[in-house]
Structures are given as structure tokens and as C-alpha cells.
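To the wet lab folks,

You asked to see what we're planning to order before we commit. Fair enough. Below is the target structure as C-alpha cells, and below that is the sequence we designed to fit it. If anything looks off to you, flag it before the synthesis order goes out.
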């Protein structure tokens, strides 16, 4: 399940996803950027710390080439119950998120979003390729390859040095 044979793409830039309003977004627009891809939820115990720190990192590094891509997911105890637009409004209003919030996705199971099949095949975590919970984070280099995966309990600020290294900031 989730083996690399079923994921022919070599870069996240080869995918098209939908934004919170259902418009297609070609991820090739992020070529040359360092990406942090996160499955988010508004009603999770990790919501406040993660959104707060993601916003802080984004404000600090967006001008150096960091982009955060947030994908709402309702697979874990139904902690993202509203629409994709509700999730976007929540993140942008409560946490001043200026980074893109995409359409809700499934990150595990038979209907896993293709971009998440790629991410999971690129870096296994504690539970193999499966996503353990909300706020699993993938750090992606400027060429579109996954360079690290962080679990839900890993706060975004704790790997700021990894982001700086990917951005080539001394």
C-alpha cells in the first residue's frame, strides 16, 4: 500500500490540487520555493500551537522563499467538520494565515489525494506510510522533493533550522 510503484511523479510540482473554492492550482507555480505541506484541522488539540507557529514561520521566511500549503482533513475524529471554505476562513481569521488553504483532502485510505500518495511514498513516518494524525508536516526542497517528515506532536518552530537550511539561510 502506498508503494512508490504507484507514484510515478518525481516532484510535488507535477500535481494539480484544488483551492478552498474548488479552483485548480498547478503546484508547478511553487517551483523554486521551499514548501511545508501540512494536513490541518480546526478542532484538534494541536490546532492552536501549529497554526500559531506556522503563521510565525511564514511571516519570517516567506520573503526568502518559504511557502506553506495547508490541506484541511476531516479523517481524524472529524476534527475539520465544515467546508473547505470554512477551514480557510478559520485559519485566515483566527490565525492570520496568509498562506494557501486548499480543498479538504483524504490523506489515508483508498481515496487518498494523489499529492498525499506522493508525500507518503517519499518519506515514511512512525506508522509507515500512513499519516498518523492532523498536523503531519512535510518539508520539500526547491526542486519539489520531500526532504523531511515531522509528526503531529513536532512543533513547527522546533525544526526552524531545517527550514533555514533548505532556504540556504545561514
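Sequence we intend to order:
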Amino acid at each position: 500500500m502506498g508503494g512508490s510503484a504507484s507514484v510515478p511523479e518525481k516532484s510535488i510540482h507535477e500535481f494539480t490540487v484544488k483551492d478552498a473554492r474548488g479552483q485548480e492550482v498547478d503546484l508547478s507555480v511553487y517551483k523554486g520555493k521551499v514548501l511545508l505541506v501540512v494536513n490541518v484541522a480546526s478542532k484538534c488539540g494541536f490546532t492552536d500551537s501549529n497554526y500559531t507557529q506556522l503563521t510565525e514561520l511564514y511571516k519570517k521566511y516567506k520573503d526568502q522563499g518559504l511557502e506553506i500549503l495547508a490541506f484541511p482533513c476531516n479523517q481524524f475524529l472529524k476534527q475539520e467538520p465544515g467546508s473547505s471554505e470554512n477551514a480557510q476562513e478559520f485559519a485566515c481569521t483566527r490565525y492570520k494565515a496568509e498562506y494557501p488553504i486548499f480543498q479538504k483532502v483524504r490523506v489515508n485510505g483508498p481515496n487518498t489525494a494523489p499529492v498525499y500518495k506522493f508525500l507518503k511514498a517519499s518519506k515514511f513516518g512512525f506508522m509507515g506510510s500512513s499519516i498518523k494524525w492532523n498536523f503531519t508536516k512535510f518539508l520539500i526542497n526547491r526542486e519539489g522533493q520531500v526532504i523531511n517528515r515531522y509528526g503531529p506532536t513536532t512543533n513547527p518552530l522546533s525544526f526552524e533550522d531545517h527550514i533555514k537550511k533548505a532556504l540556504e539561510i545561514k
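Structural context that might help your review: The chain has four helices and six strands. Residues 1-5 have pLDDT under 50 and may be disordered.

Thanks,
Computational group
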